[in-house]
Design brief:
With 188 residues, this protein is α/β, with parallel strands linked by helices. It has helices spanning 13-21, 30-41, 47-61, 65-77, 90-98, 111-121, 130-141, 150-154, 167-180; strands at 2-7, 26-29, 82-85, 102-108, 159-162. Helix 1 (13-21) crosses helix 9 and helix 4 (65-77) runs parallel beside helix 5 (90-98).
Length: 188
C-alpha cells in the first residue's frame, strides 16, 4: 500500500508522514528527493530552488519522473507500507496509481496557520515574508504543463483532510483513512 500526500506548504503532510512512520510505513518525499539533487548540484535548498528544479525535471523527463524514481527505489527494496509525500502534479499521482495499491490524501489548513507553521518549523528555505509565501503558493497552484499543479492534484484525492485542529485530531483523521482502506489493524 502506498499512501500519497498532496497539499499546500505547511498543511501538515510532514506530520502525517511522521505519524504513519510510527505505524510501520516507510517515508519517501518528492521534496526530499529534490533537496538531495540540489545538494549534489551545490545549490541552496530554498523553496524557490525546489520549485525550479522540480519543474525542470518534469519538463525534461516527464511530469511523473520524481515519483517514478521513488517507485523504483520502493520496488527494489520490497517496501510494502509506503508514504510518498509532496505530490504536486497529476502525472506524479498517475505514476503511483499505475504502480498498484495506492490512495491519495490531500491535506489543507487556513493559509495564515500554514504560514505560521513554516515559520516555526525552520526548514531551509522556509524563512520568507507572508507575501513571498503567498506568491510561491500561487505559482504552485496555477502551474501549467509540467509545472507544479497543486489544485489539480488535490482534486484527484481519495481523501481530503482539513488540518486546523490539534495533532491528536489529525492523527484520528489519519486513523479513519487507515480503517477505510483496510489497514484498521494498524490503528491502536
Amino acid at each position: 500500500m502506498i499512501i500519497g500526500l498532496t497539499g499546500y506548504f505547511g498543511a501538515g503532510k510532514g506530520e502525517i508522514g511522521e505519524y504513519l512512520k510510527t505505524k510501520g510505513f516507510i517515508y519517501h518525499s518528492c521534496s526530499d528527493y529534490l533537496r538531495g539533487e540540489l545538494e549534489k548540484l551545490g545549490q541552496p535548498k530554498t523553496i524557490e530552488n525546489l520549485i525550479t528544479l522540480g519543474n525542470s525535471l518534469r519538463s525534461q523527463f516527464g511530469a511523473g519522473i520524481i515519483p517514478k524514481r521513488l517507485l523504483e527505489q520502493i520496488e527494489a527494496k520490497g517496501e510494502k507500507l509506503v508514504i510518498v509525500d509532496s505530490l504536486r502534479h497529476p502525472d506524479e499521482i498517475a505514476a503511483l496509481r499505475e504502480g498498484g495499491d495506492f490512495v491519495l490524501v490531500s491535506v489543507d489548513a487556513p493559509i495564515e496557520l500554514r504560514y505560521q507553521r513554516i515559520k516555526e518549523r525552520g526548514r531551509p528555505g522556509d524563512q520568507m515574508t507572508y507575501e513571498e509565501f503567498c506568491k510561491q503558493e500561487e505559482f504552485q497552484i496555477t502551474g501549467q504543463g509540467s509545472q507544479a499543479q497543486l489544485l489539480a492534484s488535490r482534486k484527484l484525492a481519495d481523501y481530503n483532510i482539513v488540518n486546523d485542529g490539534t495533532i491528536d485530531e489529525l492523527h484520528t483523521k489519519i486513523d479513519d483513512v487507515l480503517k477505510d482502506v483496510g489497514l484498521g489493524d494498524l490503528v491502536k
